[in-house]
Every structure is written in structure tokens, then in C-alpha cells.
Amino acid sequence: MSKTPYNKLYPESFKPEDFLKEETYKHTRAAVEHALTIIPEAYTSEEFHALEQKQIFQNSWVPCAVLPEVKKPGDVKVVEVGGESIIITRNKEGELRAFYNVCRHRGVQMLDKECTAVKSARIRCPYHSWAYDLNGKCLGTPLFEGSDIPPDMQGMFDMGGVDKFTKEDYPLFDLHVDSWGMLIFIHMGENPPPLTEQLGDLPERFAPYQLEDWEIAATQQFTFDANYKLVGENFMEYYHLPWVHPELIKVSRMEDHYRYQGDGMYTGMMTWPISAGDEGGWLGLPPFSGLEADQLESAKFIWLFPCVALSVMPNHCFIMVTKPQGPHFTIEDTYVMCHPESLAAEGADKEVQQLVDFWTLVNQQDIDIVAKMHSGIRSKAYRGGRMCYHFEEPVHRYMNMVIDKMVGIERVPKGDENPDDKVSMFGSKDTSIEPPAG
Questions:
Q1: Residue 303: which domain range?
Q2: Mean pLDDT across the stretch 212-226?
Q3: Residues 166, 266: one domain?
Q4: From CA 411, how far away is CA 433, in angstroms rounded?
Q5: Which helix (H) or strand (E) holds 62?
């Protein structure tokens, strides 16, 4: 008797309630050498996307901005997480604060996404001018409280036997906010676990880089006609490099890829050593002086669940913040960040521009191929593909994190027993993700 073809293992369609069931993902839960990719609906279904916003983005520490964007009190960054508009700011004491971008009066969105700072350290609603301080405290409600109403108009605003209005009862709706390295994270849950639990061993492993001190050298935005997970999965594997990125493999050779996988909600690999490439490649800008020999010669590639990539070099970091805009479209904000030492070096502007040009080229190459992948996945003929054991292990790890959240399992996947050993990605095996018992 012949085996069932791999493209027939998944049914022709799923109901929305199936997206929350463990049975739906049994073929991706298999060991990577036997696994299929996650169901196609994870990339194409409006219903899956809506559930994903709730199960993942509203129930995880989501990296969504970088520290220099809210460097001083009154700076603001308006972001979208889990379908909600959120204001990130810094109060007068220098602490990060985050609030839903919603006025307590009539629910108006107070700040536009382009806003970068507020005047007089106040967040003011454009509709009726309710004002709030940088801790979310309601400061003023014009013509709402008796004390603000001119005497000859008080009769008009008489609220009779209505309970007295108190500003203290109407602060902005706040959220949990934290940071690691240069990244700012939001959690929309009521009692989230500490951010450190999700990060695992990353703070310890990257402590020598002093990432919290790095500055923005350049920013750029890209758009992908594809699901955000495909953008991420493309970052996590290097199988496609020879055919899509001929320039990239000059500085990050296939044979120089190693595992960099510890405990935590991330996938990790590294290039060691970094190759010079053309015109200095990644190494033209002087490195941060606080690094040791191994760190000066290696590049670390981290995908932080659920939506951010970090490419950390000795002299710069390239960050990709992917923002899902429905199942079929993604906006990606990118940052080239450097330690102040590197930016102060002679000729730094030229070297930074070379880095910007390089990463722009890589992203443009990915935009085309990822869009083709998304289009292909939408075909009714495609019902999941066989994972490539040698090269797509990080993708398998990530898919299982997605599945965990969708079915309501809260756990942080384990890493390698000795994560700092230089183990080649060729022929390596991931046993860190196992299906739950039963």
C-alpha cells in the first residue's frame, strides 16, 4: 500500500475553530526531519489572522520600537500592536510608559502615527481638548467640571443629581512596557510574566555589546505583499542565500553558519568568521571597543518572537520590525544602529551609507521572493510542504512557538545544552520542541 502523498496530509480546508486545536498542527509538531510546514491558512486566512492578533500579539511581549525614539520626557512613538494603537512615551522621571491611544471622554485617537513628541509634556485630545500627563493622569477637562465653566454659563452645564465628576477616575488606559537592549516591548495582558522569561538567555549572551546605548544611524521602511511570518521565516533560514543573495554570501558564507540557540522565545544562528566581502563589507565601520575576539569576528542573527529580527555585528545592528497589516500585507520598519564610538569614527557617514545600501539591496531581493512564496501558498494545490532538515530547523522552532500560542500553551522553548559551542548548522538537529503529552 502506498503512503499518502505529503500534499494530501492536510484536509482541503479548516474551520476557524480548528485553528485553536492541537490536532490541526500534528504534522508540524513532528520532529523536524519528518515535519510539514504549518497549515497554509496560517498565512492566508482572515480568520486565522484575527485569532493570531488575540492569541499572539495581545498575549506576548511584542518588540515594537527602539529606545532612542523615546529618549527624553515628552518624546512619543505611536505603534500598532494586536490591532490596537498604542502611545509609548517617557515620563519626567525617565521611565517608559505606554497607553492605549484612546481618550477617556469619547474614545478619540489622540495622537497620529507620525507624532514624535508632545508639547508641554501633555497628551491632548484634538476633539474636546482633554489633557493627560506623561503618567496618564487626567489633567484638564474643559467645560466638563463646574470650576472650569464661566459663571454666566453654569446653568447650561448643570448636571443636576449626577454623581460628581472626578478627574482622578479617568486616567489613560495603560499597558505593560519594558525594554531589553535597544528594543521596547509591549504586553497587553493584565498580569504578564516578566520580559526576561520570554527573552531567556539573550540578555546574558548580549550583555558585552551594551546594546541599550546604541543610536539610530539610519531608518527605512519596506512593504511586503506577504504574511509577516513569511518575512520572518525567510530571515531564519539560509537555504535560499546562494540563489537570492549572491552579495550576502560574500560576507556570510554558507559554510560559516553555526548554531546560536539557547533557551528563549527566539531563533538564533551566527556567522563566524565574518568575511570581508567587497569594499569592507560589514566590517568597514570601526567596531565597538568593548567586545572580545570572538564577538569582533562574528555576526549573530536573532528572530525575536513574534515579529522582530536582529542582525548584530561588532560595529552595527540591523533591526527589522515587521508589522502585519492583515494576512496578505506587511510593513517593515528597519533601523541601522551603532554604538556611539563607531559613529564618532572618521568616515563613519560613508560607512553607514554603505551599510544602508547593502541592507536595502538584501531587503529588495527578499521582497520579490517572499511575495512569490505568499502567492504560491494561496494556491489550492498547496497544502503544506516538507521541511528541509538541514536548513529549516529554526523555521520549525518558530512555527511551533506560533502553534503553542494558538492552542493556548504558554512555554518557553529550550535551547542547546551548550549553546555557545560552535556547532555547524549542517547536519545539526533540534530536539528542543516536543509535542505536549497527550
A1: 200-407
A2: 97
A3: no
A4: 10
A5: strand 62-66
